[in-house]
Here is the input.
Amino acid sequence: MKLPVGFKLAGISAGIKESGKLDLALIVSEYPLNWALVATTNHLKAPCVSRNKGRFSSSKKVRAIVVNSGNANCANGEKGLWDNEDVAGLAAGALGYSTPHDVLTASTGIIGKPLDIKKFRKFLPKAVKALKADTKNFAEAIITTDTHRKQVSVKLRGGGRIVGIAKGSGMIHPNMATMLAFVLTDADIDQDLLRERWPEITNKSFNRITVDGDTSPNDMAFVFANCRKRVDEREFWDGLEHVAMELAQKIVRDGEGASKLITVNVTNARTEEGASNAAKAVAKSPLVKTAVNGSDPNWGRILNAVGYSGAVSDMGNISIKLQSILVYAGKPVDFDAELVSESMQINDVVIDIDLAAGKASSVAWGCDLSADYVKINADYTT
Here is the structure.
């Protein structure tokens, strides 16, 4: 995938993953970067998250980010903090920078496993030599249980580009998840404005997906702009939102063991918060997710999730549709269960919920829950 002007990426194997697959990656810009970050809300935070948030608070520009997969470098005590600093310093040295402050860090993988700094010292110079204007190896090097690379590109009028690359498959839940997202652009966008709008965009995208209800200590979503191209700002924001939404849906489609994307549309809620809470509750419900996996039109599970979401006090006016077929309207309705079940035997299942309480709406994306999810996670560290 073609990159925006001034960016180069790399992905190599440094032996961090026992499999020998690609696991060490770099994003480097020829020019200083305006940037924005949204990170996990988990009180357990990996050192990379804490350090990046510190750099974010300084409002200083950066030039690069080093990413490793296969090891989260989380819950490793003081050693983990120093290891993370060493990674930034080693990357800065390999890139010829005068300070590690120019380099951000990101890690993903197993929690509680110390980093082997010797591998970073040995392989970061090789990663620098592998830098090129292509996304493939980088996108491969950041994944863990993902089954494929996740990339999206938008071309803007005048030649500007927005390219997004993400990883994520399990431990996914709104308020960030086990996901990393990197959005690169050569658009000339003010950093203060970028930082104002990026959280709004992530709330509409990455914070509306759920696979298993778990929120990781390593999640981060970045946007980097090197300001080489003048662009129409409205077109840029539309393009940035499109990239984030597409990446978010790619993550949830690739949920561990998943075979179906679940879209939950909630309309006519009293408040936007209530609509969001209802949509997320249904999308993350294990009972709803297993019913979708089995193509079972069990609307009672959907109604139950709406009930405990707290979105509405009067449950008597709610209506529910599965695949556009009405299955509940304040009371059970006659419907062809076999027909609805058959309509659910595809990759995309849509649940529409009308709360009949106001004018607010929201959407959330989830995936079905299969026996494969249990198999993947039962053997994750062994």
Residues 261-378 form a domain with the Ubiquitin-like (UB roll) fold (CATH 3.10.20.340). The two ends are 35 Å apart (CA to CA).
